[in-house]
Every structure is written in C-alpha cells, then in structure tokens.
Amino acid sequence: MASRGGSAHRANGSRDKICHFKLVLLGESGVGKSCLVLRFVKGEYSDHLEATIGAAFLTQTVNLDDTTVKFEIWDTAGQERYHSLAPMYYRGAQAAVVVYDISDGDTFVRAKNWVKELQRQASPSIVIALAGNKADLKDIRKVHIEDAQSYAEDNGLLFMETSAKSDQNVQELFLAIGTYRHT
C-alpha cells in the first residue's frame, strides 16, 4: 500500500499534505510493544496491560513541517502461537518497529530474526526501526547499546533505545520514522 496523500486546510487557508503510514510493531511477548503504542497514542503508561491477542489497531496523527502524518499502527501479539499471523499485518506496511527488551538478551536475538523476516518478505521500501525498550532498566541491561547500534547500522535500520515507562524517546522514535518516510 503506497502512502496515500490528500490535503487539509490550515486556518490560514493553505493546504497541508496528508500521508497515511501503515506501521507494524513486532517483537516477543513482554518487550513492551503495547506500552510503547499506548504512550505514543494516549500519553499513558500501565504496568498491567493484558497480553495482546492477534493484533490491536490504533491511530495517531502528527504534524511534520507541512505534512500531516497519520500512523495506522498494528500492535501485534508477541506469543509464538501468533507468529504465523505476522505477515498478514506487515504486508503493505511502510514501516515496522522491531522491539526488544534491553534487560533480556533472548529478545534481542529474536528481534534479529524479525528483522531478517521483514528483509526477506516485506516490501523492499519498508522502513525498519529497532527499538531497545525498557531503557529505564539500564542497571540490569543485558544488551549493550553499542551492539544494538552496530547491528542497526549494518542492516540499515533506524535505532533508538526507548522507555515507555519514563517516556524516553517514544515520540522521537515515531517522529523519526515519519520524518524518514516523508522525506
């Protein structure tokens, strides 16, 4: 699905371009995908979110210069039993955020598998961002930022460490994707 464009009137009568971006979040269960989306869309955080079943759909609109970007966000379930459904959600996506937990090395290994799958099966023009979530847990870090940064650079990924809990780099992550996609 290519970025759709339209226009919206500003109060001063000028027109803004509107872009719709399908974005999918992928990663293992418990890495904080739903918390990132909740923080981005509603500015809220909860320690007690239920595990996502299948996928959840949310939208968020942001303004970037003269462009209004409407993110159509698919927050996918992380449990292994839902893995086979993932292609249905990332098919046609302009962007993907692959999330891992910096305090759990296994989730980083699995994040690399998600990246490989996207590189093989998703649109060649998809923007892939790697998000090291739970940056507030740096005292029990298992994934070094240098390792993740190097992996991201080697694979052409955007990279940020985030914390949905402390709101670290959450807006910045999505804005970086939107900026990259609309330039």
From TrEMBL:
<dbReference type="InterPro" id="IPR027417">
    <property type="entry name" value="P-loop_NTPase"/>
</dbReference>
<dbReference type="InterPro" id="IPR005225">
    <property type="entry name" value="Small_GTP-bd"/>
</dbReference>
<keyword id="KW-0547">Nucleotide-binding</keyword>
<protein>
    <submittedName>
        <fullName>Ras-related protein Rab-5C</fullName>
    </submittedName>
</protein>
<dbReference type="GO" id="GO:0005525">
    <property type="term" value="F:GTP binding"/>
</dbReference>
<dbReference type="GO" id="GO:0003924">
    <property type="term" value="F:GTPase activity"/>
</dbReference>
<dbReference type="InterPro" id="IPR001806">
    <property type="entry name" value="Small_GTPase"/>
</dbReference>
<comment type="similarity">
    <text>Belongs to the small GTPase superfamily. Rab family.</text>
</comment>
<dbReference type="Pfam" id="PF00071">
    <property type="entry name" value="Ras"/>
</dbReference>
